[in-house]
Amino acid sequence: MKFSKIFLPTLKESPKEAVLKSHIYLLRAGFIAQVAAGVYDLLPLGKKVLDNIKKVVAEELDKAGAQEVSLGFVTPISMWEKSGRYFRYGKELLRFADRHGNGFVLGPTHEEMMVELVKNRVKSYKQLPLNLYQIGLKFRDEARPRFGLMRGREFVMKDGYSFHSSVEDMQREFALMQETYGKIFKRLGLDFRVVDADSGAIGGSGSKEFMVLAESGEDTIVVCQKCSYASNIEAAKRVKKIYPEGEILSKKEVFTPNLKTIEELSEFFKLPKDRFVKAVAKKALYDDKEEIVLFFIRGNDELEETKACNAVKANELVDVEEAELEKAGIVSGFISFLNQNEKIIIDSELKNEKNMICGANKKDYHITGIDVDFDDEVFDDIIAVKEGDSCVCCGASLTHTKGIEVGHIFQLGTKYSEPLEAYFLNEQGKTMPFVMGTYGIGVSRLIAAIIEQHHDEKGCIWTKESTPYMVDVVTANIKDEAQMDLSENIYSNLQKNNISALWDDRNERIGFKLKDYELIGIPYAIIVGKEASFGQVEFVERRTLKNEIMSFDEAISRIKSLA
Ligand code: ATP
Ligand code: MG
Known about the structure:
- The protein is of the alpha+beta class.
- The chain has 13 helices and 31 strands.
- About 25% of the residues lie in helices and about 30% in strands.
- The radius of gyration is 29 Å and the shape is globular.
């Protein structure tokens, strides 16, 4: 492609609202253009990257035996009601009615529709297993679309669904998908981790996320320094912490005027923070109701909200207004788990702990010397694992790192097949719901994730399989005949060899062209300059920005060996 012909509106200035490098560079280098909050157009270069990623994804999935389909983006609302997700998805579902008043939803994911497709078409265990996927648009009316392609409202996802006659077979496919995803992200040149993920209300260990390691990632990953344990903080575990027994405190109410924080209390009582139980009040939202829940954790721990949300099987947890607490008779800052009218959940590590200090549910008072003595159902794992905590697999120290979720694989079981009444006949002739797995990849998010991991101060650095072009042939001065002839020669030679090339044939200064080259981030450049009449060119590697003078033949064979 000739640069002079390409639709590539590059920008000099960084857009104000963009903070992530990927967002800034993709806008500035003319890969994307914003249409509305969380909605983007892909320009020619962006479209090429998207297609490259799609190709890698499809090739590896096809190799693994999955089949590509394409389902409608517009889905009937009735399906969402039937599966029970109409409420659970809440405001993220973009709903609308057609001219006849029929309700529809723009698909945010397609479990319902894929089950509907397979239902009644696959009737016997003999037709199983089946793995169907698509790569297409999704719409989620995200509360805070941000970071460009990273968290859009309209975005491209690869979503796959597998159907099985047994849990074992689904688990076999799950392992195959894990391996396949690994191949995909490796081909795309990404440094990633597979981590244990939150499985939501379904529970179990059947969910893994693929995290691209990047400082800018929105997810916190807990990683063991010694073994292979890695988990999203939402699902991370640690070895239970044991604290030295302190002096025995008598059970009594103590006047603690205005002392609300653990720091203040620790100072006041001259006791370590681990001797205190702190309360976090939240409002749990359900399909049909909402209620206040009080979560209790050790003074030096923090609440992990996803764990807490799962513990009460809520759709969402939100903050509670002080006035609302007051109305419920809860004394903020002095909340107790004793004699509590509201629902309470206590962190499992506090089970049977003795001699603790907690609020008295009375303004300005705490109670000392209390034992955490409750029935099992009140306890759950609700704390956030911290750096320095011990790994449950090997005991070594855990650390935190940041990641971008680019894939999520999930052992679904019969969560959708049952409510949607999707059955098959098993070997014994019995009617059974399909056992399912579901597998997602954030295809458009990957465009941003690649740049988050591969960039420098000057711009993008595309990886081999994602790059829009392999090489940029930059003609220093298009008015120089020798330079134009040699450039043309190199460009057509590359084309003959099926090496995708851009030819910067613009009537611009070389410095200007090289700035664009660096911003766009094509892996290699061949600069045709003053030495053109001797057949000499400069060969540049974008990653290192190292340049070498060599003959044009050598430059072409170098590219051939690298492409
Ligand atoms: P997140 O936790 O980032 O909101 P999710 O858990 O809601 O993601 P899934 O339902 O698992 O996402 O969707 C599968 C994949 O789609 C994710 O792993 C992610 O890569 C991608 N994805 C999800 N939401 C968005 C979005 N708003 N914009 C771009 N990609 C997204
Ligand atoms: Mg997810």
